[in-house]
Amino acid sequence: MRVKKPLLLVMAFMLVASILVGCMNNDSTKKDTATDTKDGKKSLIVYSNSVSDGRGDWLTKKAAEAGFELKIVEAGGGDLLNRLVSEKNNPLGDVVFGLNQMNFETLKANDILVPYEPKWTAEIPEGSSDKDKFYYPLVEQRIIMIYNKDVYTEETAPKDWTDLIENEEFEGKYHVPGNLGGGTNRSVIYGMLMRHVDKNGGLGISEEGWKEIKAFFDNGYKTPEGEDANANLASGKVPISFTYSSGLPGIEEEFGFEAGIVSPEVGVPTTVEQVGIINKRKDQDTAVAEEFINWFGSAEVQGAWAEQFGSLPVNTKAVAKASDKMKQIGENTKIQDMDYTFISEHIDDWVEKIELEIF
Amino acid sequence: MITFQDIQVKFGDFVAIQNLNLNIKEGEFFTFLGPSGCGKTTTLRTLVGFITPTNGKIIVDGEDLTNTPIEKRQIGMVFQSYALFPTMTVYENIAFGLKVQKNKKEEIKKRVEEIARVVDLTDEQLIKNVSALSGGQQQRVAIARALALAPKIIVLDEPLSNLDAKLRKQLRKELKKLQLEQGITTVYVTHDQEEALTLSDRVAVFNNGVVEHVGTPDEIYNQSKTEFVCNFIGDANVISQKIIEEIAGKTNMKVDPAKKYYIRTEKIKTKVLESDQHSVSLQAKVMSKEFYGTYSQYKYEVMGTSLANIEKEDGDFQYLEGDDVTLFINPKDILQY
Amino acid sequence: MKKFINVHVHNKIYLWLVGIILTWFIAAFLVLPNVNILYTTFFADGAFSLEPFQKLISSKRAMNSLLNSFILGITLVITVNITGVFLVLVTDYFAIKGAKILRLVYFTTMIYGGLILVSGYQFIYGNSGFLTTALVKIFPTMNPDWFVGYPAVVFVMTFACTTNHIIFLSNAIKSIDYQIVEAAKNMGASPWQILIKVVLPVLRPVLTTLSVLLFASGLGAMSAPLIVGGKDFQTISPMILTFANSMSSRDLAALLAIFLGVSQIALLYFITRAEKKGFYMSVSKVKTRIEKQKIENKATNFIVHFFAYVLFAIYVLPIMTVIIFSFTDTYSISTGTLSWEHFTLDNYIKILTDASSYEPFVISIIYSGLTAIIVVAAMLFIARIIHKYNNKLTTSLEYSFHIPWLIPGILMALGLIITYDKPMPILGNIVLTGTLSLLLIAYVIEKIPFTLRILKAAYYSFDSSLEDAAKNLGAGSFYTFVRVILPIVLPTTLAILALNFNSLLADYDLTVFLYHPLYQPLGIVIRNNTDPTASIDAKAMNFVYSVILMAISAVVIYFIYGRGSKKKNIL
């Protein structure tokens, strides 16, 4: 008789669990079929790597006011790209935004996007969008080196990435990434490598370039997993780091310190967050997705977004709404001139080489 | 009642049972006796249905059971390890088969209590977990469980081998009593000759997958058909060529040099009745004595070879090592193979 | 007769059906995805390429990582066995004061592991950890980054990997026949001699198996090298994860994974061989329960007590900090400082009231629960088949079910994705990617080998004549299974159910590729929260998640071990 009790427990648990899963399943199929206009609600599944620090919640709320029911799937840039590619035969998302132009090139090559034309194309600088109309720019992120103002002054701070390598004083004082999956970390790499393009060198980079990147990693502080580079920056333990421009205000606020911005003469790498519609094949109706992008990319929403989160919008009509800090970054740093096609052709190999030979 | 007809059992290339033919009568207590690995348990498992013979038939009450599923054979079994279900109480163990048959609760209860009384299990013991019982009590549960379904036949596979000597003797008696009361056909497997001789109506002695001798305990003991049976059961002396010729010379016994001659230890005597005309006397010297309580075993040197006998410890026979004795052998007690 | 034929034919049909289903399952989920990923990585352009080999061989980092993984595996076999044996001697063999509480604390590795555990250690020994801060005050010249590299990884893993010792070894000690100890005493052996010459040899088969498992966990170590390994002690698993994440480097991931796989095959061979040699069966019919040994020598007694409580501190400190920090805000957590003003219950309140915070728990509990139940139910059945029909077919079945052991989880996940991201006839043209079932399937596959091994052992541990007895009493196979066999293996079944459940609750490696984007499991959320870009109190939330996870695991373990510890359980 005593045996029966646990058995019953297990069975009960099984029952409850299967019912719950049944519900979950129903839920998802409902959502799948109801992606479009039902009950007057226009629901969309949006994939993004650019919704952290409350941006996702804000977007969901604002979109609801505009009549969209958003379900945001958040993941890091690398994970998001992997996921989109692996789901290409059974995509769940309707819209993806936040990945950079190189990632969108990969998506395009894998037939994951549908071409379209938003209403606001006239408001973005000419030539800034994909000529095949698969994706459009939203927000520009400059990748900037920052330092803790309590530790360095403008004079004592490094002037360029190369300073970190050449000047012994900075040894162990700057953060280097431990993994190169994300866009920000990668742009630091290509920002340095692209200064040494050499068609005859290994993977298109001269020997000197590789020496430099090796020295960069060897002399830096490789922040281990579980440790926070920004916390180290704030505490002065590792007083030099880098970030994407719109991340800066958040870091300063969270850790309560002031960061100085380094503006190398050669310029800073920039990545542009793009938006596109996911190719769902089977008789897809992209009307709601297009409507959402029309709304999201508009000067009004981008302006509000910029105001709220300190981003630097691409939409020329929204730039005015950007915070002073962002404007300042925009003015004080210049964009490094780089061949992005060359980068997207080589970046994976560079990363692999660094992973294998330098880390 | 039970007939084994030309039964053969093979495991791969190994022949476990070779052409076995046996008849067991209704109500009989029949024992399979033999050393381990002789095929007795295999034969038993073939009867119960755990093993399908590669050849031959098993007929019970005129019905061919060779391919009948185990549960349809109505044969109760008691296992060597008892195989009591450890997660159940004594009651649940005994009631198991009755529950399988979907009997009514009250009927099950009635039957379990009835059987428990037969094997002397108390009501308190019935609600205990089987692991809380002693070995002897577990044995009773195993028997009760096998009897609960009122089988036509009950088979017991070395049921007493896990018990101590005293308990073994006691349970042996109870088992025999039980069998007589219930009148149930019983097949019993053992390697213990004493068990076989005391319990059985008839005994089959197994060796290397073959039945060497079937008979009553008296027959297999006193008229062992084969050398193996003679050696396996009781204690026997090999009679050396010299002695057998000496005996032959004194009687009209014919000696075949190709044969071997045996005599059981208790058949060599130190005293014979005066009327005894047949016994031959041999001069012997006492070599050693082993004391067993009710009797002692003596070893003698006879014509350069050795013989052993046993003597009742009644105080009459008290020789010491080195003493000379006269031994008597009656030629009719000599077994030859 | 007719009836018999019917039964026989039914039985045959049933076996055929089972065979077909199993063949399909093995082909579809164990063989095809894995072959597929190997094929696509090494025959990317239609021809076999040796390039990945060259890349890896010429990479100093890769070669060092391989070497390090091996060194770690070997080191752990030594250090964990020493620690594990000591722990078990303290809890079950020697009479130690406070053994009960010690035992409870030594058990804590069962309820937390991975990232959470290593973070806990960081809070004590890391550069801003309590111990480090205290030591730096005493020795100002000391390097606060001392807890890094090989010694740190070995330290963390030595204490984290004793779970199996606590489970298996303590059971083995408990089942020693005390009479052999008494016999040795009677022959004049000293306590030390008894321990070394009598007790430990009995434990040797268990220790052999445990050593093999330890070597495997050292080889595949992930969290500890990632967090405390530093620059000089990198191992292969984190590398595999990195390469698997980059589409163009997956061939390297696959190659490294194959190396792990080959090592696992070798290990599997050793385990099977060790098992064939057999565990020592106690030869005595009348076993006496082992009695705790008092250490007569006062100095030795003191030393053993001392180390028992040092271990107690090592185990209890990280878990205490995790619990304490779960009640603090981000500032305290990121700086590792404690003060009253930073104590808060906000994190708990948020998790219990905010749907987006507790949803991951619900999702993970459902996934883990379903997986545990499905895999245990299926393996109960399959282990039974293997136990019942011991032939070449079942042997190959058993080996097939060990495939998931040979393929690291990450690679298996990728295999499933690249195979079932398009309609495949073998699955009835159902596309699995983007469905809820994909993760469930992967979880189930992942848990098959361990579950099968344990349940098989459970089946073999009982007297086979019980089955005969049930049959003899007229019970059919099913009835016998449900009424006789299942109750016997039930304690083990429940234990493995619990272990499976606990181990999947916060899984990340396998989950990251496969989860349904709208239903994020806990592991993903926890990992995302550790990302530097994560929201302000995400890190604080992680501690709360950790504590709740521990609580759930502890409850589960309690239900299995706490109450019915008297029941026979091979785990």
Automatic annotation (TrEMBL), chain A:
Q: In this entry, which stretches build a coiled coil? A: none
Q: Does the keyword Signal apply?
A: yes
A single GO molecular function, which one? Answer: thiamine pyrophosphate binding
Q: GO CC terms for this protein?
A: outer membrane-bounded periplasmic space
Signal peptide positions on this chain: 1-22
This chain belongs to the protein called ABC transporter substrate-binding protein
Identify the keywords attached in UniProt to this record, alphabetized.
Signal
* Family annotation (Pfam families): SBP_bac_8 (PF13416)
Q: Does the keyword Signal apply?
A: yes
The protein's superkingdom reads: Bacteria
Q: Which organism is it from?
A: Peribacillus loiseleuriae
Q: Name one GO biological process term.
A: thiamine transport
UniProtKB/TrEMBL annotation, chain B:
Which keywords does the record carry? ATP-binding, Nucleotide-binding, Transport
InterPro entries xrefs: AAA+_ATPase, ABC_SmlMolc_Importer, ABC_transporter-like_ATP-bd, ABC_transporter-like_CS, P-loop_NTPase
What GO cellular-component annotations does this UniProt entry give? ATP-binding cassette (ABC) transporter complex
Q: Which residues cross the membrane?
A: none
Q: Does the keyword Transport apply?
A: yes
Q: Which SUPFAM superfamilies match?
A: P-loop containing nucleoside triphosphate hydrolases
The protein's name is ABC transporter
Q: Which organism is it from?
A: Peribacillus loiseleuriae
